[in-house]
Amino acid sequence: MLIKLGYWRNDWENLGIKTSVYWDTKTVNSLMIAGITGGGKSVLGQLIANQLLGTDAKISICDYKAGGDWSDIVPNYGEYKECDKVFDDFYNDFLTAVKLKATHEDRYLFFDEFSSYALSKDTKRFRILMDKVSSIAFMGRSFGYHLIFISQNFNAKVLDTAIREQFGIKIYMGSTISTESATMLFPNCDIDKSKHLMRCCGYISMPEKEIGVLQIPYIREPEKLKKLLEYKGQGK
Question: Which residue in 79, 123, 183, 226 has the fewest CB atoms around it within 10 Å?
Fold first, then answer.
């Protein structure tokens, strides 16, 4: 499946061409979106969800911050402590697919503020959670299970290098990026951290491509996008 993420900002700015950026879920299993508050990470997540809601894909949503951005869209939804059940249901469904070598429509788990959720766990539960995430990240593509993690930042305490490398597309939304986020998400990439990006822009890395700047649409009335998701999600 091809999911439109936005446009290459440099083509738009320098050539006047809106070259679309796509996530090919057949080749890249999972995606992570980081960024500052108000940088557009949740809007980008919702734009992805909007495209999926028009397909046969099954969607689960965890919203640890319980901010209302994701409520009332799909039945498989949980916020704060309810995230445990939604995530475990997704994981157990994945294990069943692996055991039966089942093929079916793709399944997606959106997890907003995953980092805060992971760091809320004690040592034992954190290790168990990471084992589950690792299994899905490493094997999910073969069975159609995809992770979309959204957080203000992803550091080594949350996802180690081996797991982060399985997220083939990494995005940081916001006008500026910190040294820590640049190092974690885009190692060995030369980013001018003093540069301020345009509104609704962020850095993106994809397999076999140099780091670029992603431009997403400006949503003037985000509440209308949320209402659209709620409408399209009926029956999901």
Answer: 123
